[in-house]
Amino acid sequence: MRCPKCSSEELKVLETRADKVASTRRRRECLQCNHRFSTIEEVLREDLAVVKRDGRRESFDRTKLAMGLRRAISKRPIDAEQINALLSDTLRRIENEFDNEVPSRAIADAIMQRLRKVDAIAWLRYASFYQDFHGLSRFAEEVINLGVGDTGGEDGD
Ligand SMILES: [Zn+2]
Fold first, then answer.
1. CB of 41 closer than 8 Å to CB of 26
2. Pairwise CA distance, residues 98 & 93, whole Å
3. Confidence tier at 30 by pLDDT (50, 70, 90)
4. Exposure of 98 in the CB half-sphere (CA atoms within 13 A)
């Protein structure tokens, strides 16, 4: 945790408030520049199940999602902060929209919707991971090959 103004890590918590069951808001002050700001801690939902296209269910795994994204943005000019924001934003929307189960397709769609605005190549790569993009995925591969010539052969998995 750093001060958003001066990046100092010397912070003081002024106030802690539990808003709802699942989130805690803290008022903080930077000891360097006296800037005051708030942070919200959220409990991550671990009861959310992902329903795959073949009907199988698996528990929602944020790490897995982040890995897919990282693969898509490999060597693209996108910083970690943008990706974290994209992930948090997507997760918030999914958790609001779905109760216990979320189709894997809905997650991919939500990610792609945002990724497209960030980077077209990363978006096409992500889209090509999903086999239901029949027509698009071939096209995507070709565009990817045109766009980034040096990514072949490094995919370990
Ligand atoms: Zn500061």
1. yes
2. 9
3. very high
4. 23
Mean pLDDT of 140-157: 53
Q: Which residues surround ligand 1, an ion (CB under 5 A)?
A: 3, 5-6, 8, 30, 32-33, 35
Span from the CA of 87 to the centroid of ligand 1 (angstroms): 26
pLDDT over 50 (residue 116)? yes
Task: Give the residue with greater pLDDT, 157 vs 83.
Answer: 83
Is the separation of the CB atoms in 71 and 60 below 8 Å?
no
Residue-by-residue DSSP string for 5-66: TT----EEEEEEEE-SSSEEEEEEEETTT--EEEEEEEPPP---EEEPTTS-EEE--HHHHH
Rounded-to-integer distance, Cα 68 and Cα 54, Å? 20
